[in-house]
UniProtKB/TrEMBL annotation:
Residues 258-288 form the PAC domain. PROSITE patterns: PAC. Transmembrane segments: none annotated. Residues 72-105 are annotated as: Disordered. This is PAC domain-containing protein. It holds the Pfam family PAS_3. CDD domains: PAS.
Length: 288
């Protein structure tokens, strides 16, 4: 019956509405406490972003806003391995450098909340994950897993034409809400401004630079480059992150240059405006 309800969803519904409707039906059918959907962030290839949630208080979803694709939490494992992942006792996701999910975890959660995640198919090897939380003592069976697989297949089919799950997705939150007003970036004279040249390997997420980044960006964690693109993304101001990711995506997919202005967090918690300029370099076969 619930799949029939999903099939009745209007074709002109926005992507975020499609995701939320599917998630709500999934949680209700398997009698879950609530659920989440994570999708990959385009150029930020090592990160999964929370793009929809249902039935969960903000305090529970806050640790899950940004999680590493190579992590051990059920959504990370489901997306990476293209398989169902189950955890009998909810635990915080693996930390992204510069962000500690354990510190954001609510202190009064019941023990034994189960966490099930199934992959959301995408283009190529790109996958997201739909996950559902279960009350202590409730463990989903084969029927529940099969239904969630049906829902994610439906989601993937409905989103295929939008590009959200294609090899060039942009961050869904940027599509749902245009970036709000923010303080203007201060003007600068490019000539004579200290700069650092970095290389980002899109296959591994590794970052390297021609000089210590803290020499140019005062107050930035000197270990950020060793943490890869996940560590750098974790430093970007939340209000600026959607635009930054969309800019990276556009430049990478068009094999061109891109320029962004955004804020990054210093170790003392204050933010520094930077201008990032980059261009995509490919090999003879056009691979980035």
């Amino acid at each position: 019956m619930r799949m029939r309800l999903l099939d009745a969803v209007d074709e002109d519904r926005r992507d975020v509405e499609v995701l939320l409707t599917a998630l709500q039906q999934a949680v209700a059918e398997v009698h879950g406490l609530g659920g989440m959907v994570h999708l990959p962030g385009g150029g930020m290839s090592g990160i999964l972003y929370l793009v929809a949630d249902s039935g969960l208080p903000e305090a529970m979803t806050r640790p899950w806003l940004i999680i590493p694709a190579r992590g051990t939490a059920p959504p990370s494992r489901a997306a990476r391995n293209d398989t169902t992942a189950w955890q009998p006792d909810l635990a915080p996701p693996d930390p992204v450098p510069g962000r500690d999910p354990a510190a954001l975890r609510p202190s009064r959660l019941p023990v034994g909340i189960g966490h099930l995640a199934v992959p959301v198919p995408g283009g190529g090897r790109r996958r997201g994950a739909l996950s559902v939380l279960f009350a202590p003592g409730d463990e989903p069976g084969a029927a529940e897993c099969a239904f969630l697989d049906e829902v994610t297949a439906w989601m993937s089919g409905r989103l295929a034409s939008s590009g959200i799950l294609s090899p060039s997705p942009t961050l869904l939150r940027a599509l749902e809400n245009e970036p709000g007003p923010r303080e203007a970036a201060p003007p600068w004279d490019v000539e004579g401004v200290p700069s650092v040249t970095y290389t980002w390997d899109l296959r591994t997420g590794e970052l390297t630079s021609d000089r210590p980044v803290e020499e140019v960006l005062a107050g930035i964690d000197p270990e950020v480059m060793s943490g890869g693109i996940e560590a750098w993304a974790a430093l970007i101001h939340p209000d600026d992150l959607p635009g930054a990711v969309a800019g990276f995506d556009t430049g990478i997919q068009l094999r061109g240059g891109f320029q962004n202005e955004y804020r990054v967090r210093r170790q003392d918690g204050t933010y520094l405006w930077i201008e990032a300029r980059a261009r995509t370099i490919t090999d003879d076969e056009g691979r980035r």
